[in-house]
Amino acid sequence: MRYIEHEQVVKRMNGRLVANVIFKGIFLAATLLAILALVLLAYRIITQGAGHLSLDFLSNFSSRFPEKAGIKAALIGSLWLMAVVAPTSIILGVGSAIYLEEYAKKNKITSFIRINIANLAGVPSIVFGLLGLTIFVRAFALGNSILAAGFTMSLLILPVIIVAAQEAIRSVPGELREASLGMGATKWQTIVKIILPAAIPGILTGSILALSRAIGETAPLIVIGVPVIIQFLPAGVLDTFTALPIQIFDWASRPQQEFQTVAAAGIIVLMIFLLLMNSVAVIIRNKFQKRY
Amino acid sequence: MTMTIKAEKKKSATKLQEQGIKVPVYQTKELNLWYGEKHALKNIDLDINENEVTAIIGPSGCGKSTYIKTLNRMVELVPSVKTSGEILYRDRNIFSSDYQVEELRTRVGMVFQKPNPFPKSIYDNIAYGPRIHGIKNKKILDEIVEKSLRGAAIWDEVKDRLNENAYSISGGQQQRICIARALAIEPDVILMDEPTSALDPISTLKVEELVQELKEDYSIIIVTHNMQQAARISDKTAFFLNGEVIEFDETDAIFSNPSDKRTEDYISGRFG
Ligand SMILES: Nc1ncnc2c1ncn2[C@@H]1O[C@H](COP(=O)(O)OP(=O)(O)OP(=O)(O)O)[C@@H](O)[C@H]1O
Ligand SMILES: [Mg+2]
């Protein structure tokens, strides 16, 4: 008695091949649709905003007059914000991931923590804004400073970084860990010399994606009261500032039609900013991978 | 420093050996081990001698890996593990609270079933152990790397490509790199868990020859599923079954004249 009738298999083969083609088509269509939407969006923004792009646009402060409005304060402000968010969130995120994966005992409490970190990643950003308002702006009396906004943004993206770093650490083969420990390395030496280097590409990818999210987030900044019109540059992390998405939001909500062009130009700057960040990540990642 | 201790130890050991007295490196006394509820090792009593190759054989799941992983306490990486009894390494109980695992593992090197080089250059793989133990001097590291690679009989094959990734060489070469890496910490004992099971016959032969040479300087404990291999390379053989040591004797005696029926059945291929 045979379980697989080969003649039957051949007969049914056609149906399977057709299904194969159909599904391939569906997925291709889905991808094309996404790309099409992206291209349309980029096209609209670029045709609308490119005319307004100039060195003046980069080096002017915002203004009541659309011709004169520039993005300097917001661009520099976003850079300051990243200077706070990137180190804070990556150090805290990777540290927590190392603790959870390498040191924490696997018991009810830690698995509760693990599950809830993943849940935190889904909490709306405005809630983090309210948290930042209560803790950093008011309780720590940091006001609407870069530091307060940076810490709030760090909290917002921390769960994403922790989860990505945990994933990356977990994917380091156990044999490498055993090999290192088996030679008398301490846990810490093993983490620093074996596990982190192997996990860094994954950690970086996750972190950069999270940072990109932080650059584009508007809601938490509005909640903690980041101002829109600023005619000076911050001198330190305790100064107030404005950021790209806030500035764009402000321009887009003004009644004059000309400001739509300014907003589009601002979006182009934001997109270039993101692209630059992503390419830096790719370069660092490739460099690390080459060493192995 | 370590060299002089080693030389001294060796001198006294050879003296004792001349008198026909074997020096034990490991003495296992009534060792029991549980993974949670599972009783994986039962009342193990084994003495392992210096400068000998001790083979551990037995069917799958009988506790061979568990036993040799207990010898360097790697088994403790499994959180549910509990042990009772004693293992004396050079007369000190490795389970005693003042025994640092790191110290034990610098004296007891381990080679795993699957070649597991680090994703680093060949040089950095070998230098890893010495570096974590604080050697920074490039000249000394160079010497250790060469000596270890020669010791593992792979120097000639890789000496021109030390800076290449260890994954760029064949599996058999990788396994000898792993042996060299274990030698680089200048261990006293080398534990090998089925080191040739992932290798082709020629690489296997090379590793076997290597084990024969290494025994001059090290004590070796090797787990193997290959009866011929155990017969060829070991001085003593322990037969494990269901977490117990059924028979432990000179390899010749085990293979030509086993005293237990189950040993005989196993080595003649009737089960396992
Ligand atoms: N991490 C673990 N958790 C629970 N039980 C385990 C674990 N590792 C091994 N065991 C059990 O302990 C017993 C001995 O396992 P061990 O790996 O030592 O066998 P082995 O003799 O090395 O087998 P093989 O020849 O297949 O490698 C087995 O019954 C196995 O199921
Ligand atoms: Mg095993």
Polypeptide structure, described:
The complex is a heterodimer of chains A (292) and B (272). Chain A is mainly α and 292 residues long. Helix content of chain A is 75%, strand content 0%. Chain A has eleven helices and no strands. The termini of chain A are far apart. Chain B has 272 residues and is an alpha/beta fold. In chain B, 40% of the residues lie in helices and 25% in strands. Chain B has helices at 2-18, 64-71, 101-107, 122-132, 138-151, 155-158, 171-183, 201-214, 227-233, 251-256, 261-267; strands at 24-35, 38-49, 53-57, 81-89, 92-93, 108-111, 189-193, 219-223, 236-241, 244-250. In chain B, the strands form two sheets. Chain B has a six-stranded mixed sheet, sandwiched between helices. Chain B has a four-stranded antiparallel sheet with strand order 2-1-4-5, with helices on one face. In chain B, strand 7 (189-193), helix 8 and strand 8 (219-223) form a beta-alpha-beta unit. The longest helix of chain B has 17 residues, at 2-18. The radius of gyration of chain B is 19 Å and the shape is globular. The interface between A and B is medium-sized, with 21 and 29 residues. Residues 64-65, 193 of chain B line the site of magnesium ion.
Topology:
The complex is a heterodimer of chains A (292) and B (272).
Chain A: H1 6-49, H2 55-59, H3 72-103, H4 108-120, H5 125-139, H6 146-170, H7 174-182, H8 187-216, H9 219-223, H10 244-252, H11 258-290
Chain B: H1 2-18, E1 24-35, E2 38-49, E3 53-57, H2 64-71, E4 81-89, E5 92-93, H3 101-107, E6 108-111, H4 122-132, H5 138-151, H6 155-158, H7 171-183, E7 189-193, H8 201-214, E8 219-223, H9 227-233, E9 236-241, E10 244-250, H10 251-256, H11 261-267
Parallel strand pairs in B: 3-8, 3-9, 6-7, 7-8
Antiparallel strand pairs in B: 1-2, 1-4, 4-5, 9-10
The complex binds adenosine-5'-triphosphate (ATP) and magnesium ion (MG).
